[in-house]
Design a protein that fits this description.
- This protein is mainly alpha-helical.
- The protein has one domain (3-215, 222-231).
- 55% of the residues lie in helices and 4% in strands.
- It contains 10 helices and 4 strands.
- The strands form 2 sheets. The chain has a two-stranded antiparallel sheet with strand order 1-4. A two-stranded antiparallel sheet has the order 2-3.
- α1 runs antiparallel to α2.
- The longest helix is centred in the N-terminal third of the chain and has 28 residues, at 31-58.
- The protein starts with 7 loop residues before the first helix and ends with a helix.
């Protein structure tokens, strides 16, 4: 990404992500340092969202996102290699083997459809996220930045987008600032990780979950660059 084309605000968040990646590489990127760095990026965005929520309340601006509201969990979700790696580690610690298998099977079923879709088709597609369980996110503490920065000012606008995804005149009423800040932070982090030699890319969540599962094989104690999530990156 050409930083000269970024606004001053975008550069701030991009460089924050870049610094996180370079700090993680001081002694070489390890599984532990990558998990810590991903968590730091999530914490940074969570702090931003919390500050925005306080300010929105002060100005009587509605923030409609809440537990049990899952309209956005039926959209195509993109995440980076390091985020999916973080989610997969969370799942291994917190999911039963049967629950992991169910997520992988749902991801496989979804990817059979979404993997062939155009960008416009993906925008209109409303398959449930493989990690949606009983109307809530089953990996909420480990969810990717894409989900953390998706903040709606109007639940009805989200429902309308769910009900009428092909209506070109309708989009959810979202807060723009966290959307752009989160994108730039992740762009910087991903760019920095690639500079360290760790190949990372953005992909459909379903594709990432299948790669993290290593095609059904038990993951061996190998380096990050040998994992399918990273060695398949271009």
């Amino acid at each position: 990404m050409d930083q000269n084309q970024l606004s001053d605000n975008d550069k701030v968040f991009f460089n924050d992500g870049l610094r996180l990646a370079l700090a993680a590489d001081r002694d070489g990127i390890s599984k532990k340092s990558l998990l810590q760095t991903t968590r730091q990026a999530q914490d940074a965005i969570d702090g931003l969202v919390e500050a925005l929520s306080v300010e929105a309340k002060r100005q009587n601006v509605t923030l409609d996102c809440k537990k049990g509201c899952s309209w956005c969990c039926h959209q195509a979700i993109f995440a980076t290699s390091h985020e999916i790696h973080f989610m997969w580690e969370f799942m291994k610690l917190n999911f039963s083997e049967d629950d992991q298998k169910l997520v992988v099977q749902t991801a496989f079923d979804n990817y059979q459809k979404r993997g062939r879709m155009s960008e416009d088709e993906l925008l209109a597609d409303k398959l449930a996220c493989p990690l949606l369980k009983n109307g809530s996110c089953s990996v909420y503490p480990a969810r990717p930045l894409t989900c953390r920065i998706y903040l709606s000012m109007s639940e009805p606008s989200c429902k309308t987008f769910f009900d009428k995804p092909n209506d070109k005149n309708n989009f959810p009423q979202l807060f723009e600032f966290p959307l752009q800040a989160g994108r730039m932070l992740n762009e910087g982090l991903n760019s920095g990780l690639n500079e360290t030699g760790l190949k990372s890319r953005e992909m459909l969540l379903e594709e990432g979950l299948l790669l993290a599962h290593n095609n059904g094989e038990v993951e061996k104690d190998i380096s990050l660059n040998e994992l399918p999530l990273f060695n398949g990156a271009k």
